[in-house]
Design goal:
Distance between the termini: 36 Å
Helix content: 40-55%
Strand order of the largest sheet: 3-2-1-4
CATH class: Alpha Beta
Number of helices: 4
CATH topology: Nucleotidyltransferase, domain 5
Largest sheet: 4 strands, mixed
Length: 120
C-alpha cells in the first residue's frame, strides 16, 4: 500500500505529464501549499529555470498577512505572482496544481492570478 506522500507524488507526476502534452511551449505556473504557507512560481521547463516566484514567506507579506495558510493569503500570492509575471513580459501560462485538488487555496490563487492579467 502506498503512503499518502507517494500518492501525492503520483498525482503530481500524472498532472505534470498531462500539462507537458498540452503546454505547447508555454510556461508553467506551479503551486505549492503546506499547512502554514503557500507559494507559486512560473517555470520555464525547457531551460529548467524559475522566472518569477511569490511566497507567503516573503518578509513584506509575512507582516501583512495574519497567516500564510488561508484563502486571503493565496489570493495575495496569486495577484503578486501575476503582477511580477506581467512585469517580466509573461502573459500566458499553463496552470500546474501539482497533486492538489483545484479547490480552496489553490483555486483562490488561480482565480486571483487570472483577475490580475495572466491567462491560462
Amino acid at each position: 500500500m502506498l503512503s499518502p506522500k507517494e500518492l501525492h507524488q503520483r498525482r503530481a507526476k500524472r498532472n505534470r505529464y498531462q500539462i507537458s502534452q498540452k503546454a505547447h511551449g508555454r510556461l508553467r505556473l506551479s503551486v505549492y501549499r503546506s499547512g502554514k504557507n503557500i507559494s507559486a512560481q512560473i517555470i520555464d521547463d525547457t531551460a529548467g529555470k524559475t522566472l518569477v516566484a511569490a511566497s507567503s514567506l516573503e518578509k513584506e507579506l509575512r507582516d501583512a498577512l495574519k497567516t500564510g495558510a488561508d484563502k486571503s493569503a493565496a489570493k495575495k500570492i496569486g495577484q503578486l505572482v501575476a503582477e511580477r509575471a506581467i512585469k517580466a513580459g509573461i502573459k500566458e501560462v499553463v496552470f500546474d496544481r501539482g497533486g492538489y485538488l483545484y479547490h480552496g487555496r489553490v483555486k483562490e490563487l488561480a482565480e486571483a492570478a487570472r483577475e490580475a492579467g495572466l491567462s491560462f
